[in-house]
Amino acid sequence: MDILETIKTRYSCRSYQNKPVEPEKLNTLMEAARLAPSARNIQDWRFVIVTDPQIRRSLQQAAAGQEFVGQAPVVIVACSCTNKHMNLCGQPYASINVSIALEHIALAAVSLGLATCWIGSFKPQSVRSILNIPTHIEIVELMTVGYPADRPKSPKRLSLDRIACHETWDFRES
C-alpha cells in the first residue's frame, strides 16, 4: 500500500476485535514513533503501552467512560518529558512532537492491518495516578490500537481550495 492509500485508509476506530496485537507489531509501531522527527531532535516522547485488561478498564474510566478504550487490546499513553517551547513561534514541543510520533504510529498500524483512535477526552491526573507517571511528565494523548471490528465511514472532507492557497492568504469566508 502506498502512503496516500494508507492515509486514505486510516480512520478513527471505535470498535475492536477481541484479539491481542502481536508483540512484533507493537514493536513496529514503536519503531515508527522512534523514527518521527522532533523539534531540535530532542526525542521527548515517551509511551506507556497498556495491554492489561484491568488497567485498560481503569483508563476507560479516566477517558470519560468511553467503552472502546477498555475494549481495545492496546492503549498507548503518549507523554512528553519536556516543557520547552519553540524559540520564535512559542509553540510547545510536547504536543507537536508527540502528535507527529502518534501519527507515525497510526499510519504504521494501518499498514499492519490494525486500526487506531486518538483519545483527547481524558483526565490527565487520573491517567497519571493509574500508571504512576511522574508529575514533571506531560500526558499529551491516549491512542487505542487493535484489529478493527467496524468498517470505516468515509468522512466528509473540505475541498483543497478551502484549505490551501498560494503565496498569500486568499480564503473566502463562508
Descriptive account of the structure:
The protein has 174 residues and is an alpha+beta fold. It has a single domain, classed as NADH Oxidase, CATH 3.40.109. The chain has helices at residues 3-9, 23-34, 53-62, 67-71, 93-111, 124-131, 160-163; strands at 45-50, 74-80, 115-119, 138-146. Helix 2 (23-34) crosses helix 5 (93-111) and helix 3 (53-62) runs antiparallel to helix 6. The protein is globular. The termini are far apart.
Strand content: 15-25%
Distance between the termini: 36 Å
Helix content: 25-40%
Poorly predicted runs: none
If you average the pLDDT, what whole number results?
A: 95
Short summary:
This protein is an alpha+beta fold.
Topology:
Elements: H1 3-9, H2 23-34, E1 45-50, H3 53-62, H4 67-71, E2 74-80, H5 93-111, E3 115-119, H6 124-131, E4 138-146, H7 160-163
Antiparallel strand pairs: 1-2, 2-4, 3-4
Helix pairs in contact: 2-5, 3-6
Key features of this structure:
single chain, NADH Oxidase, 7 helices, 4 strands, globular
